[in-house]
Amino acid sequence: MQRIGFLSFGHWGPGQGSRTRTAGEALLQGIELAVAAEELGINGAFFRVHHFARQQASPFPLLAAIAARTSRIEMGTGVIDMRYENPLYMAEEAAATDLISGGRLQLGISRGSPEPARNGAAAFGHVPGPGETDADMARRHTELFRQAVSGAGVAEADPRYAGGTRGLLPVQPQAPGLQERIWWGAGSRKTAVWAASLGMNLMSSTLLTEDTGVPFDQLQAEQIQLFRDAWAAAGHSHQPRVSVSRSILPIVDDEDNRYFAGSALRDSRDQVGVIDGLTARFGKTYAGSPDILAEQLAADAAVQAADTLLVTVPNQLGVDFNAKMLGNIARYIAPAAGWSPGRS
């Protein structure tokens, strides 16, 4: 494991005990947590994108603000639902954000997940074409987005207003290297192989929409190996990256015990359920004393197979609490899994 980042779902609301009661607080606290994480040597600040919910919905202003306040930490998404996106506008926004950051943007995208809106993408003006599924539409949007980010021409030039230029024009600005920093959020072994064939990094989901009876970490490690094999077979010139997400809740004081003792007893094993009509296996929560968590993570097959670990944070507990939690992970837990702070 080379890098650790935090993954915030960006929840906000006036519920009991919430320290993130408004959308404005969620955004500003996201910036402050990224700054604090960089000071701790944490390598990445990632945010979940979810429409029609009290979560982060428009990531690029947030990521650009983090870029302007930091100098080393990566910032990214985990993940953007491509059903909702105008691919060319998104390419412009992503490139501008990456240029502000000096090339630190790591962009996780995918087909999306279940959502509050019955047909939210259609409300944004995006509907599948004849014979297309929602997943097909997401992949079509992804293909055009990746073409635009790579500098390919996508719109016919008008020589009257383009200085005599003819042919296809690319969107502007362009951000060198961004194409190699696009990740696909894969919820199955099949989609991981597909992502590898196209040269996208793997952001392995917090659940897999299949269950072979083996523990989640082993199933996920198998997915990662299939991804790496497919990447090698495709012959891409750059090296792939792989991330996995885990809920890691070290208990070191009375405050931690008050919040997480129940999770340590309740969520300490894999769960199997149904999502979108498919059997899915969900990973367990790691909650307990740091020494025990260090041993468990060192034995987690997928954590050891990935190069990047994204730690989900309970963002509604506020910046100070989450900075403390990340500090405890960085000091007492992550080194046992092979990590050292400050890698860029």
List the helices and strands and how they pair.
Elements: E1 3-8, H1 23-40, E2 44-47, H2 59-69, E3 74-81, H3 87-101, E4 105-110, H4 120-123, H5 134-149, E5 155-156, E6 168-169, E7 182-186, H6 189-198, E8 201-204, E9 207-208, H7 216-234, E10 242-250, H8 254-266, E11 271-275, E12 278-282, E13 285-288, H9 290-298, H10 301-305, E14 308-313, H11 319-333
Parallel strand pairs: 1-2, 1-14, 2-3, 3-4, 4-7, 7-8, 8-10, 10-13, 10-14
Antiparallel strand pairs: 5-6, 9-12, 11-12
Sheet with the most strands, sense and barrel status: 8 strands, parallel, barrel
For the record, give the distance between the C-alpha atoms at the N and C termini, rounded to a whole number: 13 Å
> Strand order, biggest sheet?
1-2-3-4-7-8-10-14
Please give the oligomerization state of what you see: single chain
